[in-house]
Design goal:
By secondary structure, the chain is α/β, with parallel strands linked by helices. The protein has 2 domains: about 130 residues, Aspartate Aminotransferase, domain 1; about 250 residues, Type I PLP-dependent aspartate aminotransferase-like (Major domain) (Aspartate Aminotransferase, domain 2). Helix content is about 35%, strand content about 15%. The protein contains 13 helices and 13 strands. The strands form 3 sheets. Strands 1-7-6-5-4-2-3 form a 7-stranded mixed β-sheet, with helices on both faces. Strands 10-11-13-12 form a 4-stranded antiparallel β-sheet. A two-stranded antiparallel sheet has the order 8-9. β12 and β13 form a beta hairpin. It is globular and about 65 Å long. The two termini are about 40 Å apart. The C terminus is likely disordered. Bound molecules: pyridoxal-5'-phosphate. The site of pyridoxal-5'-phosphate has 15 residues, from α4.
């Protein structure tokens, strides 16, 4: 932490310089969270630092104000909708992140079906339970299979028990800990089998939406609008390296305008969760999407997967239990010793940790991590159980794939 500038004792410039130096120093060891940092925005410096831009209200309803980027926001929604194979009439907006997108989708589902039940998997992001709690919606947690994907048979059983109630299923494309991808096509088929037509399927594709969308059709999992999603959300600060939290929410068709309707003083429809919204984050998203282009985005994803494969193989080589799901950037591993965690920032749940090989993470960093892990590993002794046996067993070894 840095000293705050209080009582004039620390110059603000010193605080900022210190913050920058520490952030640059610690960046090398930060390999546990999915924020890409390889795209930067010097060309936008003036606009980012010298203008107030507020996209208040609906992106397609420009409102009274002129200091906004709603035309750019419309393009961002259209590009992402296209990648996720949404229908032509798709609607969406740039959110503060995926969590906000999921809250919006749950609220939209409730407006449509006030007696709905929410279903999600035990591996879903905590924002699903939080949004359900905020909206006072009943939530049913469904089991996952060995790879961390929603267990569709368990889900179907739970829906069948309440088939008189509308269903809101929140699927995940890229779960937080293991980057597993729920089978949206199978979820939609299960609902069809049960004749549950009063339903919504929202796909939280915070990290993996864009990378998966750019896979060739033969290998792409059924996770998008063509598989049965009714809404999807991606985070901008994850794969798209916006460096500022944001997300893109897309619906297959425009939701009903909420009760608030059109707000006289803003001159725009109240279709979003917050009123004022950043006009800068749509610009960052647009810059990232358009300057990288489809080829650049695809190339980065393949490079990230290659690095994940390298990481997984290195962990296997040193005998450290690890797992890697198909198409994932995320390598799961049994939790390293404390001295390794003191140097490296890894996301850990106490038993299992993960490394996310985002664009911007290099093989050099991974190799240094493996060297540290090897050095920290206690030597195996015939008298004592091996360190491998002492590590709480996870299902990692059964979930690994052959990359
Ligand atoms: C699957 C999933 N959903 C949602 C989120 C939260 O996204 P945001 O930070 O954009 O709200 C995360 C963050 O890690 C995530 O992994």
């Amino acid at each position: 932490m840095i000293a705050p500038a209080v009582d004039g004792r620390v110059e603000p410039e010193t605080v900022v310089a210190d913050l920058l130096a520490r952030a640059r120093e610690s960046r090398r060891y930060d390999i546990g969270f999915p924020g890409a940092r390889d795209v930067t925005f010097p060309a936008l410096a003036d606009i980012m630092t010298g203008l107030l831009l507020n996209n208040v209200g609906d992106p397609w309803d420009l409102g009274h104000g002129r200091a906004h980027t709603k035309h750019i926001e419309q393009q961002v929604v259209a590009i992402v909708a296209d990648m996720l194979r949404a229908p032509a009439q798709a609607w969406g907006y740039v959110t503060g992140g995926s969590s906000e997108g999921t809250l919006h989708a749950l609220d939209e589902a409730w407006q449509r079906y006030s007696d709905l039940v929410v279903y999600t998997s035990a591996a879903a992001h905590y924002s699903v339970a939080k949004s359900s709690r905020l909206l006072k919606l009943p939530l049913v947690m469904v089991r996952t299979d060995d790879t961390g994907r929603i267990d569709v048979a368990d889900l179907a059983g739970e829906i069948a028990r309440r088939r008189h109630r509308p269903a809101m299923i929140v699927a995940t494309a890229g779960t937080t800990m293991r980057e597993a991808v729920d089978d949206v096509a199978a979820i939609a088929a299960a609902c069809d089998d049960l004749a549950v037509t009063r339903r919504r399927i929202h796909v939280d594709a915070a990290l993996s939406g864009i990378p998966l969308a750019l896979l060739p059709a033969e290998t792409r999992p059924g996770f998008d609008f063509t598989a049965g999603a009714t809404s999807m959300v991606i985070s901008g600060h994850k794969y798209l390296s916006t460096l500022m939290p944001c997300g893109v929410l897309v619906y297959a068709e425009p939701p009903r305008t909420p009760a608030g309707g059109r707000i006289a003083y803003t001159g725009s429809a109240d279709t979003t969760i917050t009123g004022s919204r950043s006009g800068h984050t749509p610009l960052l998203l647009w810059w990232s999407l358009t300057t990288l282009g489809v080829d650049g985005l695809r190339h980065r994803a393949q490079a990230a997967r290659d690095l994940a494969t390298h990481t997984y193989r290195e962990l296997q080589r040193i005998g450290w239990p690890a797992g890697l799901n198909p198409h994932a950037f995320t390598v799961t591993l049994d939790q390293p010793p404390a001295q390794v965690l003191a140097k490296w920032v890894l996301a850990s749940d106490g038993h299992t940790a993960h490394i996310v090989c985002m664009p911007g993470v290099t093989q050099d960093q991974i190799d240094e991590f493996i060297t540290d892990l090897t050095a920290a590993r206690p030597p195996a002794s015939p008298a004592a159980p091996s360190p491998k046996a002492r590590v709480p067993r996870t299902r990692l070894s059964r979930t690994r794939t052959s990359p």
